[in-house]
Amino acid sequence: MKRWSLVLMVAMSLVILAACGQKKYEPVAINEDVDICVVCNMQVKDDAFATQLTTKDGKNYKFDDIGCMNEWKKSNGTEQIGMDYVRDYNDKSWVEFSKASYVYDASLRTPMAYGVISFKDKAAAEAFVKEQALGTVLTAGELASHEWKQNKDMMNMDMQSGEGHMEEHSSEEGTHSEEKDM
């Protein structure tokens, strides 16, 4: 009897130690008053385009567009990421990046004109494509080889309407259309 008690205690101890060893990363709320994208320095709005990641050492980074999060990953690597999250386009719930489905189309308006939006499941992404009659459904794995290009025409339109990212438009390409108007 004592033997089984000892075995049971050791087994329970191992389960407790295993559970304590796993670090859990949760998404944090967006505060529009102070949160800015760590890549483009634009305000992170509490909307369907917000994304975030937490590093294994507990630092949280927020982005206004999934393309900015991709830029951060290219510059910093992915091995230090504890968890990354995107928002469901329909209900703004947080979804683990690897579990979400994505729709890409260059004509989709996103804060930094990358044209990628996220959904909590493939069915929702497919419904969006069918309803809008545009876009391609992608997985997180397929985004790894996606050609992350900004729609410069959309960026220039946003700039003329007073929206968009100023630094992005300070290049020769972004200012020549304004010079023609003068």
TrEMBL record:
Region annotation Disordered: where it falls in the sequence: 160-182
Signal peptide residues on this chain, from the entry's feature table: 1-18
Compositionally biased spans, kind Basic and acidic residues: 164-182
SUPFAM superfamilies found in the cross-reference section: NosL/MerB-like
Keywords (A to Z) from UniProt: Signal
Keyword Ligase in record: no
Pfam families attached to this UniProt entry: NosL (PF05573)
PROSITE patterns: PROKAR_LIPOPROTEIN
The keyword Repressor is annotated on this UniProt entry: no
Alphabetical list of PANTHER family matching this protein: HTH-TYPE TRANSCRIPTIONAL REPRESSOR YCNK (PTHR41247)
This protein's name: Copper chaperone NosL
Organism whose genome encodes this protein: Paenibacillus silagei
